[in-house]
Design a protein that fits this description.
The protein is mostly helical. It folds into three domains: 171 residues, no CATH class; 162 residues, no CATH class; 115 residues, no CATH class. The chain contains 25 helices and two strands. Strands 1-2 form a two-stranded antiparallel sheet. Helix 12 packs across helix 24, helix 15 runs antiparallel to helix 16 and helix 21 packs antiparallel against helix 23. The longest helix has 25 residues. It starts with a helix and ends with a helix. Pfam families: ImpA_N, T6SS_VasJ.
Length: 474
Amino acid sequence: MDKIFAPLDVNTKLSQSELYDNSAFYSVKEEMRKLTGIEEENQIDWVKVEDLSYEVLTKYDKNLQVLTYWFVARLYNIGYQSILDSYFTLKGFIFKVNINPSHRTSRYFDWWIDKTVDWINNNIKNIERDDVKHYIDEIKNIEKNLPNGFSELIPTYKILNVLESRVLKQDSSVDGSVTELESIDSDRDTQGSCCQVKEVTDKNSDENHQSLGNPSENNKLLKSNLLELQRIAEKMFTDDISDTKSYRIRRIGIWADIYTLPIAVEGGKTNISPPDINDKKVIITLLESKNWLELLRASERKILQYPYWLDLNRYSYMSLLELGYSNIAEQIKNDVYQFSQLIPEVRVTEFVDGMPYADLKTIEWITKKEKKEKIKDPGRKIIKSKKEIFIEIYDEAQTSLEIGRIDLALCQIELIIIAIDEYKIDEWEPELSIMFLELALEIYYKGKKKSHYLSVIQRISRIDPNRAMNLFRN
């Protein structure tokens, strides 16, 4: 692995123009382009990608994008053992090749981390629990020792979140949470019950909820849960394209933490990179050939990668109409309309290269919806308050619980818990807060989350001690 960041031989080193004509570089790029189409990761020859990437890095050019290809290829070829190797190699590469943090390098890191998280989600059952905990500790240590600028640039928290969540799930499945909860004597006197709640909750709350109230940790937790929502939505969509919930959940996952436009660089341009040219070609080809099913699949999946590319939503809308799912199509149009009402300028804003977030047809599509809403109720407030949004998520969580989707309900209720802390709902609207927390109790109970359950009881007791006591007894 030392050869990856060792100096290149002057006889083989290539300039940028020569590199693009190099057969190894061309072949690895060609293989990786499959990811921008409708083929899955298992269609890629990962051994070929690993070998060719290594050849490019050790003979021709210290190309950071190719390095991330090599990381992901080794992950598919070797397994989770390569994750630490990748971090160690990256650390050496940064120091010895002398690369600088920039917007372009952040795109490569984002891609590498996202692909690693996808792989972990699909293969976590094959990783021993002790190995997971060891990897968490090692990755945290490496992250601390990265040069200035790189720790913030590399979204390592995504990997740590998914690993830590798996450890917590394994721990909760081992400790028999529901059985232990049911064994607590509900006939104890009031003082005894409160002591039991306080003693157990304080301990578990310190260990498992120390992040609550910390804005930085809350943001990380929020991002982790939104990513989990995206993952669940993708699975539901893959299983059944007619599943209405998958479309709503996907858009909650990508838009729930977008409150303002990205940083403007000049005019209507922002610092957001445009969609990859190959991604655009795939979408346009499917649209022109009227391959509605594949256009729907490609558009919905690319929305996860390009949340600001609003045209994708219109392509999904068109495809669903053609496939006979007009109710889902209208739901998507409504969701896009609501998003554009929260950030009205989003429809006339551009990517960094000048490509608009929404083309003229998409702007017209949204505007027609806007006119219909105004005709229906001219005096109606179009923009939803945060309270309305949280109640919508509450309703979604309740529905998920009723249909037995505990995994989805857990993600949704975590968003509500974060909202309670972020906006101090328990202080300003205690009854609303209790309504949210009572649903959280039921979800955590059925999800066998003992420490979370007890922590919520304690939170309710701070607002209404009598209600907490009755809930605990029942």
